[in-house]
């Protein structure tokens, strides 16, 4: 299959910076990050017709898998492990998974309405009580409860559409 440069460029333009930040937050190695981003874009381009759901989610999951594969390969080469001082692979996989979950949750939250997102952020990220959230958002407590209920339902639907396992 010939490389469609326009498609690859569009993927880089739209998602490259976010992917690079994600990989760098896990590896702290700019060259490795660039290699992972390039491999990710190529793999996703090859799978493009089969992708269902969010392209961005698929990109991040693919980058996650590539990073985990790289950690495992490095474990089989002791000299390289010593040179790079890689962390325990289980810890590395856990860290990458945590970062991926954070990225996917941010994407899902951005797809919510502003009202729903504000309530969820106030209750779950800022750890406000219902009454504190009501004061902060300048809405009645009952409205906070109602929006929270519908926001969680909407968030579940979005996460399902993105193919995120709960």
UniProtKB/TrEMBL annotation:
Keywords: DNA-binding, Sigma factor, Transcription, Transcription regulation. Pfam families: Sigma70_r2, Sigma70_r4. Residues 11-77, 108-156 form the RNA polymerase sigma-70 region domain. The keyword Transcription applies. Gene3D superfamilies: 1.10.1740.10, Winged helix-like DNA-binding domain superfamily/Winged helix DNA-binding domain. PANTHER family: ECF RNA POLYMERASE SIGMA FACTOR SIGL, RNA POLYMERASE ECF-TYPE SIGMA FACTO. Belongs to the sigma-70 factor family. ECF subfamily. NCBIfam families: sigma70-ECF. This is Sigma-70 family RNA polymerase sigma factor. It comes from Pseudarthrobacter psychrotolerans.
């Amino acid at each position: 299959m010939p490389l469609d440069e326009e498609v690859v460029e569009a993927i880089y333009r739209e998602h490259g910076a976010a992917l690079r930040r994600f990989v760098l937050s896990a590896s702290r190695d700019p060259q490795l990050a660039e290699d992972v981003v390039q491999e990710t874009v190529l793999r996703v381009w090859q799978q493009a017709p089969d992708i269902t759901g969010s392209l961005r989610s698929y990109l991040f999951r693919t980058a996650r898998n590539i990073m985990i594969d790289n950690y495992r390969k490095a474990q089989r080469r002791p000299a390289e492990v010593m040179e790079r001082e890689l962390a325990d692979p289980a810890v590395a996989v856990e860290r990458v998974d945590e970062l991926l979950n954070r990225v996917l949750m941010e994407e899902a939250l951005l797809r919510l309405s502003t009202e729903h997102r504000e309530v969820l952020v106030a209750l779950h990220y800022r750890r406000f009580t219902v009454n504190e959230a009501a004061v902060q958002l300048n809405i009645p407590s009952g409205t906070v409860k109602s929006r929270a209920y519908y926001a969680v339902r909407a968030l579940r639907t979005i996460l399902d559409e993105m193919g995120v396992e709960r």
